[in-house]
Design goal:
single chain, six-stranded mixed sheet, 16 helices, 16 strands, about 15% strand
Length: about 600
């Protein structure tokens, strides 16, 4: 019986050792999988995402754009000191933007003074307003982005209420009423030199905020968005070269009329000019006949249909720049002369029409050859009216401001450069504001996209472009606030270029990487067969641990019982020995018995 018990105890002990070994092996495998396998798999399969300045991009969206404008009001020498104070106070009130918050706001750096000796000498000289503007500008040129308003005496030669020259100078004829003179002067600054309403509309449109649809349709939709360059193509359309051999010297016309304008805008964008002659190209629309004048005409509804069939034949150059097309159409003999009628049914003064963000077309009527003339008849075009029309179209396409005429204000037209100094300043300011708003909106969209989709790789080049864009936007905002619009425009170009490079990077495509559902479809067949045995073994180890926990109280009870039995036995022995010591007779008797 004792031997069988020992064998059973030995077997039980061996089983327990094997169970413990199996548990430790299971825990070791699980530990390797969790501590080494899972981190290794996670690290080798994670998508690389460079750190981006999400906080800085969020701050850019909430930053108010402030542009500084230097304005100087020059009054006659005989102006009383009190009138000077009144001028300053009322000018501040008229040019104050108010307390209402706006995402873009002007800050006018105002100076009010009287004329100095040299200026009085120039003003007192006899001459036209154009000469006065040129002399005062040469005497004291205004900085880029600033303007000067001169208040002339009542007896000056200025017939209109106000005059705006080609430079950065305006003149207001004094009326003797300070409030009226201040109101007119402030109107010239805000509506002509600065045009803050257009700047606000441009900014809100570029950021995607709510805006006036009518203003956007007029100001924004007809002009190209900011680009690094443009391709300007002049095309001569001759539908019947067998009758007319039309010649044009576009190279000389470009050098005389177009290049001064493009050279003036060299810092704004790069321009490439091309010209071509297309034969047997018809408009594909049938013009109506005017029997009274023995001519033909196109209605406004027909004009859009004249561009679509011609555009496919214009060709294109391999370039990332947008194309600007200007067409000169020579009507065929069966539809000559051909005119364009406006909405009122009258002939257009220029016999041309403008297409927003595309270009324009001008119809040039030439005399048909006599019946007995040899064909084809050679005709040389006069390109002066053609280039004047196309220059006005190009101004609109590039965003040069076109203000409504005012009978009380005389605006001196530009010289051969086709743009005045104050128009150039306004163009720079508009383009800078548009670039800053567009770059900010692009970065905000990019950060939102990358935050929502975690599978897109963000490489170091994208992060570098984003950081460059953020720095360029901040630099442009600082320069705008300082009034340096030339440097601010260059910084805004860098901002929009870097932001678009980052946004349109080819690596930012979710389809190049596995979406979440495809990841599960690939990894489940791989990890499920391996994870099931590991999980089952962990479950068995857990059950063994629970059993051990249940056995532990029973063992403790048995141990306590054995300890109590031993204590009782020892107590009995102690009691018996004590009794023997107390009875000596018993000891003697026991000896005798022995």
């Amino acid at each position: 019986m004792a031997a069988a018990g020992e064998k059973q105890a030995a077997k039980t002990s061996q089983d327990e050792e094997e169970a413990v070994t199996q548990v430790y092996a299971t825990l070791g495998v699980a530990l390797v999988v969790v501590v080494i396998g899972v981190p290794l798999w996670w690290k080798t399969t994670e998508v690389y995402r460079a750190t981006l300045p999400y906080g800085d991009i969020g701050q850019l969206k909430d930053t108010q754009v402030i542009y500084n404008v230097g304005v100087e009001f020059v009054l006659p020498l005989q102006t009383q000191p009190q009138d000077l104070l009144d001028w300053r106070e009322q000018v501040d009130q008229h040019l104050d933007t108010g307390s209402a918050y706006s995402p873009i706001s002007p800050h006018y750096d105002i100076k009010v003074r009287t004329t100095n000796k040299d200026e009085r000498t120039v003003v007192n000289q006899n001459g036209s307003m154009e000469e006065l503007d040129a002399r005062l500008t040469s005497l004291k040129p205004s900085a880029v982005g600033s303007c000067t308003v001169y208040l002339l005496a009542k007896d000056s030669s200025l017939e209109a209420t106000a005059y705006i020259g080609r430079h950065r100078t305006a003149f207001v004829k004094s009326s003797g009423d300070v409030s009226r003179d201040v109101r007119i002067s402030a109107h010239l600054v805000r509506s002509y030199f600065v045009n803050d309403e257009r700047l606000k509309t441009t900014f809100t449109s570029a950021t995607g905020a709510q805006h006036d649809k009518e203003n956007i349709a007029k100001e924004q939709m007809r002009a190209f968005k900011t680009n690094m360059g443009y391709e300007v193509t002049f095309s001569l359309l001759n539908p019947d070269p067998s009758v007319l051999d039309v010649q044009w010297d576009m190279e000389a016309a470009t050098a005389s009329y177009l290049n001064p304008f493009l050279d003036r805008l060299a810092d704004v964008a790069e321009f490439k000019v091309f010209s071509q002659v297309l034969y047997y190209v018809d408009l594909t629309v049938r013009p109506a006949r005017d029997e009274r004048r023995a001519s033909y005409y196109l209605t406004p509804d027909q004009l859009p249909h004249t561009i679509n069939p011609v555009e496919a034949k214009l060709g294109s150059h391999v370039s990332t720049y947008p194309s600007v097309h200007f067409l000169v159409y020579i009507p065929e003999r069966g539809h000559s002369p051909l005119y364009i009628h406006n909405e009122q049914g009258k002939e257009s003064e220029t016999n041309a029409f403008f297409s927003p963000r595309w270009g324009g077309m001008k119809i040039v009527n030439v005399d048909s050859p006599p019946k007995n003339a040899s064909l084809p008849q050679t005709v040389t075009l006069d390109l002066l009216p053609v280039m004047e029309t196309f220059l006005s179209h190009l101004r609109l396409l590039l965003g040069v401001a076109q203000l409504p005429p005012d009978p009380w204000i005389v605006v001196e037209p530009a010289d051969n450069t086709a743009i005045t100094d104050w128009e150039y300043d306004h163009l720079l300011r508009v383009r800078t504001v548009e670039n800053v708003a567009t770059a900010t909106a692009t970065l905000a969209t990019l950060s939102q996209l990358l935050g929502e989709i975690g599978n897109i790789v963000i490489n170091d080049d994208i992060a570098r472009q984003v950081y460059l864009a953020v720095d360029a936007i901040r630099k442009a905002q600082r320069l705008l606030a300082a009034g340096d619009i030339s440097a601010a425009f260059q910084a805004s170009k860098e901002a929009i270029l870097s932001s678009e490079k980052a946004f349109f990077d080819p690596s930012l495509l979710e389809l190049l990487y596995f979406p979440e559902d495809q990841k599960f479809a690939i990894y489940i067949p791989l990890f499920l067969p391996m994870s099931v045995p590991v999980l089952m073994s962990l479950f068995q180890a857990y059950r063994w641990y629970k059993k051990q926990q249940q056995k532990q109280p029973a063992k403790e009870e048995k141990g306590e019982m054995k300890e109590s039995e031993i204590e009782e036995t020892e107590q009995q022995d102690d009691d018996s020995s004590a009794e023997e010591k107390k009875s000596p007779k018993g000891k003697k008797q026991s000896r005798k018995e022995r």
